[in-house]
Amino acid sequence: MENDNLSAMYSKNTPNREDAFNQLMDMYGEEIKRLIFSFVKNWPQAEDLTQDVFVTLYTKLETFRGESNIRSWIYSIAINRTKDYLKSWHFRKMQVTDKFKNESTTEKNAVELHVISNSEDHLLYKSVLQLPLKYREVILIHYYKEFTIRETSEFLSLKEATVKTRLSRARKLLHEQFIKLGGER
């Protein structure tokens, strides 16, 4: 879809608005859910936040001006919604509650987790998830989602120089964390 067609396609009065919204959900739903999960580290919460993002998208669809790529716009909504959640009382309460829970795994799950944890990809992913949020978000947006530094700075409302600095520091921390978890140098 091109941005030129979006304003006509997504306007409130167009009969194709529902089709356009459904197409956006199909195109970006899983991608947005994975992005949100990388911030909140909880699948049920990531699903709830993804749903919330798409409800917001649906209600604000007619406000899309086409000045940016629709994917960038959706990412901005998702990142902002996720950051709001991470600042919320509910999230802080959930973190404290989760620390006191001891979840048992079956022997089969333990074996599967052991096999997965030995893979380099899993170690790298685990290392990224353990980074502080301000470093994790630039790594995920820039490297995993392949947005430019300029786009990343727009999403996060940061200067490009700040994004570059955070990327540099994040790579260093990521390397240290990867080695600490048993990855190869």
From TrEMBL:
Keywords in alphabetical order: Sigma factor, Transcription, Transcription regulation
Coiled-coil regions, chain positions: none
Domain RNA polymerase sigma-70 region, first and last residues per copy: 25-88
Similarity comment: Belongs to the sigma-70 factor family. ECF subfamily.
Name listed for the protein in its UniProt record: Sigma-70 family RNA polymerase sigma factor
Tree of life domain: Bacteria
Nucleotide-binding as UniProt keyword: no
Keyword Lyase: no
A matching Pfam family: Sigma70_r2
Stretches assigned to the RNA polymerase sigma factor 70 region 4 type domain: 124-174
